[in-house]
Design goal:
single chain; alpha/beta; Rossmann fold; DNA polymerase, domain 1; 2 domains; 6 strands
């Protein structure tokens, strides 16, 4: 287990851990579907779009495709979902606008207060598969108080590829254990732990909706296991004071 006093920076998974992607994408999709496919459910549409997320990145992780930013993948995936849903006649401008749904996601209720608490003692930054412009737009809209924007586009690789974690440690000039990944996804944390990072699991039991089956509990003895980000901030405060 990591000595909490060693931690100097916290990096965060964003989609699902910091922001509620499903509700945000469904909100943006709802108006679009009213125009083009009023019988379709906006949450089902958001889920279908998200299901393309990991397979599209795997093409890059595997080396079958050169790196492209997530905005590009999201747009390609959206076109696939539109075609599969039988939605035709959508203009490029409408597709581009709906693709920006991922830039306009709302944080979970605990996120802003906890991030501002943590920022007083630690460097805080996203370690997301989202590209830089996406992360900046989201942060400015939601008030996320990042010290830097880190993640996939910075290292031109997608989690859980090892270089995402190791190169982020190097960028921050830290030893691996001095950097703690905070995520609601056990797989992300497992990849970080293999590179020596500290780990914090925060449960988000409705990330995938009311019938979520995955990541409902910690699969390993992570350095921190918390119910929300305020609990993490309190534990880190107690370990340092």
């Amino acid at each position: 287990m990591t000595n909490p006093t060693e931690i100097k920076a916290l990096v965060f998974d964003v989609f699902g851990t910091i922001v509620d992607w499903r509700s945000g994408v469904a909100r943006e999709a709802s108006a679009f579907l009213q125009r083009h496919a009023p019988s379709l459910d906006a949450f089902a549409f958001a889920d279908a779009w998200r299901r393309e997320y990991s397979p599209s990145m795997e093409e890059i992780r595997s080396g079958r495709r050169p790196y492209v930013r997530l905005d590009v993948l999201h747009r390609e995936n959206l076109v696939k979902v539109l075609e599969r849903s039988g939605i035709a006649g959508v203009t490029d401008a409408e597709i581009d606008e709906l693709n920006l749904a991922w830039h306009r996601l709302d944080p979970w209720p605990d996120a802003l207060g906890a991030l501002n608490r943590l920022k007083r003692r630690f460097i805080i930054a996203p370690l997301s598969n989202g590209n830089i412009r996406l992360m900046v737009d989201m942060a400015k809209r939601a008030g996320l108080p990042w010290d830097a924007i880190l993640g996939a586009e910075v290292v031109r690789a997608y989690k859980p590829s090892p270089q995402v974690y190791s190169e982020t440690v190097d960028i921050l000039g830290l030893a691996p254990a001095e950097l703690c990944l905070v995520a609601a996804h056990n797989g992300d944390l497992a990849a970080a732990r293999r590179l020596g990072l500290s780990t914090a699991f925060v449960v988000r039991p409705t990330e995938h909706g009311p019938n979520q089956k995955t990541d409902l509990k910690a699969d390993e003895a992570w350095d921190f296991v918390v119910g929300d980000l305020n609990e993490l901030a309190s534990q880190l405060d107690a370990s340092i004071d």
